[in-house]
Amino acid sequence: MSAASQVGTFTIRPLDPLKDAELLHSWVTHPKAAYWMMQDAKLQDVEREYMAIAANEHHHAYLGFHDGEPAFLMEKYDPRYIELVGLYEPEPGDVGMHFLVAPTDTPVHGFTRAVITAVMESLFADPRTRRVVVEPDVTNNAVHALNEAVGFVPAREIDKPEKRALLSFCTRERFFNRHSLAARGVSI
Predict the structure, then answer these.
(1) Which of 20, 69, 115, 183 has the least CB density, counted as fewest CB within 10 Å?
(2) Which residues constitute the domain of residue 179?
(3) CA atoms of 91 and 104, how far apart (whole Å)
């Protein structure tokens, strides 16, 4: 999948758990990735985690590139089987999502928003996807603002084994309405 934005071109490919583990390890253990909850992970832990995802038919990981350079991690999952089992009533076409932007010493204004937009475009490229579901930590205000910017609507707080999360949803229509308005320069 490839998408152009104001900050460059994004592409996404399936993650290779062994080939990409060293790169991912540097990302998920970085202090800026605290909400990823892998701060103390060893390289083998990251390999094991992403091998398990690769073996799971309901969970998929992707490596995202910005102008050809690795720049973000994206996961999509079926919330009927992963992450949210018993915590909400899934609807047909629901897809769960996580994303992590690589740490950088030279941030680019608007980059993370461009990444989440590319992630959402890739999820909605599948016509079966009707709604994207996320469950970020309730204290992660930065991601809540990003989610709202692309069209997520908070539903309620839920208790997961590892965190208190803000369950939020973004429908296909809401995302494309937001994305269309933003592309035309309309403040949202």
Answers:
(1) 69
(2) 10-184
(3) 37
Query: C-alpha 39: how far from its chain's center?
Result: 18
CATH number for the domain including 47?
A: 3.40.630.30
Convert the pLDDT of each residue in 139-162 to its tens digit.
Answer: 999 999 999 999 999 999 999 999
Determine how β-strand 69-77 pairs with β-strand 131-134. unpaired
Q: Please name the residues in contact with 139: beta carbons below 8 A apart, sequence gap of 6 or more.
A: none
Distance CA 183, CA 71 (A): 22
pLDDT in tens, 80-105: 999 999 999 999 999 999 999 999 88
β-bridge mates for residue 74, sequence order: 62, 99
To the question of pTM greater than 0.85 for the whole model, the response is: yes
Residue 186 in this model has a pLDDT that exceeds 50? no
- Residue 75, strand partner residues: 61, 98
Give the distance between the most distant pair of CA atoms in the chain. 46
Helix H or strand E segment including 117: helix 111-124
Domain count across the chain? 1
Residue 97 lies in a domain: yes
Does residue 127 lie within any of the structural domains?
yes
Q: Which amino acid is at 52?
A: A
Please indicate, yes or no, if residue 154 is contained in any of the structural domains: yes
Nearest to 101, CA basis, from 33, 47, 22: 33
